[in-house]
């Protein structure tokens, strides 16, 4: 077989980012590398009693703490310790890891299994995980073996004792589609604890927004056109008090003989998705939910994903590849949330 293999992995690009047209500055503006991508935090106004250097340190420490707990890219993380352990006994875990695993189980149920953090073994098999390896189309027999260790039902949570257990020794958890969203929420809560009401927190395209930007307007969030060739804007959304996450097939994929294998894995088949859905953007009250739902609907595709989003009242915008470019399809909940966010912001701030 003549394999033409193109690997495309652009971790430093965003799928959604803020557009500020003026050169007004922010009293607190942080940007740095984390979790294999970048974060950006903008605070529009800051109470005078706050020590900015101290707050910046608190934010960095918080992000680094989450990375040390939830990364599959660090052998020493709490998650990696659990993944490496072959024990099927109950194990105590940190409260924050417990929160993320609980949310992941809920979204697994809501999406009828499309979102499944136990796909970790398959993510590695297909070359999208922490093990550096050549990305090639994988044999069906290898997929079958890996599928034996997939299923959120193999993960048990004991809320009262904050313990977890795996039913099978090889269960391997991957929080790449949910932990960034969780981290964004925690940073937002930290800012709010300091009575900061106008801010944007973003990690790798997952965003939490409050109030307005330096132009005294709603935040202008650009959704990227889902194409790997050039960075272009598909549309700009004015947003104020909401979270947004986008999942796409156009930044982290490889191609073999013209077939695109994306990093979103369908837990039913054990294979990367290959359908025509290019990206999904979710609006939600929390970033953890937006992050996970974006991956889930990406896995389900434009038809099944849209039906589920409509039925479950999920605010989702699908961007679908067609012969001549892209078409957009938003759920009624998406249009409603957008309108409500804009209306509420006009009432609150007159933006
Ligand atoms: P999303 O759509 O949000 O997530 C896709 C990812 O989710 C896939 O890559 C896969 O890992 C997983 N996934 C695939 N299918 C499913 C499914 N059906 N259900 C659930 N999950 C699925 N990358 C590095 O290169 N170096 C690092 O050091 C590094 N550290 C990280 C630390 C943490 C704590 C986290 C959360 C991620 C880290 N990453 C790292 C991963 C990197 O940021 C990922 O590319 C990213 O998390 C994937 O996010 P996304 O927004 O591109 O795609």
Just give the CATH class of the domain at 75-166. Answer: Mainly Alpha
Backbone CA Rg: 20 Å
Helix/strand structural class: alpha+beta
The CATH architecture category of the domain at 75-166 equals: Orthogonal Bundle
Overall geometric form: globular
What is the typical, i.e. mean, pLDDT? Answer: 90
List SSEs in N-to-C order: EEEEHHEHHHEEHEEEEEEEEEEHEEH
Kindly identify the CATH topology of the domain at 75-166.
Answer: T-fold
What is the share of helical residues?
A: 25-40%
Q: Report the β-strand fraction as a percent range.
A: 25-35%
From the N-terminal CA to the C-terminal CA, the straight-line distance is 59 Å
What would you say this structure looks like, in words?
Mean pLDDT is 90; it is low at 1-14. This protein has an eight-stranded antiparallel β-sheet with strand order 3-4-8-9-12-17-18-19. The protein has a domain at 75-166: T-fold, CATH 1.10.3980.10. With 351 residues, the protein is α+β, with helices and mostly antiparallel strands. A hairpin with a 2-residue loop joins strand 13 and strand 14 (259-262). The protein has helices spanning 52-70, 78-84, 95-110, 120-125, 140-147, 179-193, 287-311, 332-349; strands at 5-9, 16-18, 28-34, 37-43, 91-92, 155-158, 163-166, 199-203, 206-210, 219-224, 233-239, 242-248, 252-256, 259-262, 265-266, 271-272, 277-284, 315-322, 325-330. Bound molecules: flavin-adenine dinucleotide. Flavin-adenine dinucleotide binds next to helix 1, helix 6 and helix 7.
């Amino acid at each position: 077989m003549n394999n033409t293999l193109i690997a495309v992995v652009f971790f430093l690009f965003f799928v959604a980012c803020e557009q500020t047209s003026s050169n007004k500055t922010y009293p607190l503006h942080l940007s740095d590398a984390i979790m294999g991508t970048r974060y950006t935090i903008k605070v529009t106004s800051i109470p005078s009693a706050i020590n900015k250097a101290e707050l910046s340190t608190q934010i960095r420490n918080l992000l680094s703490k989450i990375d040390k707990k939830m990364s599959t890219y660090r052998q020493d993380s709490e998650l990696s310790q659990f993944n490496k352990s072959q024990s099927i006994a109950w194990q105590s875990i940190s409260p924050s890891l417990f929160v993320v695993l609980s949310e992941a189980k809920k979204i697994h149920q809501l999406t009828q299994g499309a979102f499944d953090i136990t796909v970790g073994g398959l993510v590695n098999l297909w070359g999208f995980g922490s093990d550096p390896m050549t990305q090639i189309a994988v044999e069906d027999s290898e997929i079958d073996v890996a599928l034996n260790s997939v299923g959120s039902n193999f993960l048990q949570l004991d809320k009262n004792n904050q313990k977890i257990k795996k039913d099978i020794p090889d269960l391997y958890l991957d929080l790449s589609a949910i932990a960034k969203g969780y981290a964004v929420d925690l940073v937002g809560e930290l800012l709010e604890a300091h009575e900061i009401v106008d801010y944007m927190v973003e990690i790798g395209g997952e965003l939490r927004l409050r109030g307005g930007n330096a132009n005294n307007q709603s935040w202008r969030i650009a959704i990227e056109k889902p194409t790997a060739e050039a960075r272009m804007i598909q549309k700009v959304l004015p947003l104020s008090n909401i979270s947004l996450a986008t999942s796409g097939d156009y930044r982290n994929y490889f191609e073999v003989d013209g077939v695109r294998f994306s990093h979103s894995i369908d837990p039913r088949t054990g294979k990367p998705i290959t359908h025509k859905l290019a990206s999904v953007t979710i609006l939600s009250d929390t970033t953890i939910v937006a992050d996970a739902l974006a991956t889930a609907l990406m896995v389900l595709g434009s038809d099944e994903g849209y039906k589920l989003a409509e039925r479950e009242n999920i605010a989702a915008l699908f961007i679908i590849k067609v012969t001549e470019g892209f078409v957009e399809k938003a759920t009624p909940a998406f249009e409603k949330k957008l309108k409500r966010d804009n209306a509420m912001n006009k009432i609150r701030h007159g933006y």
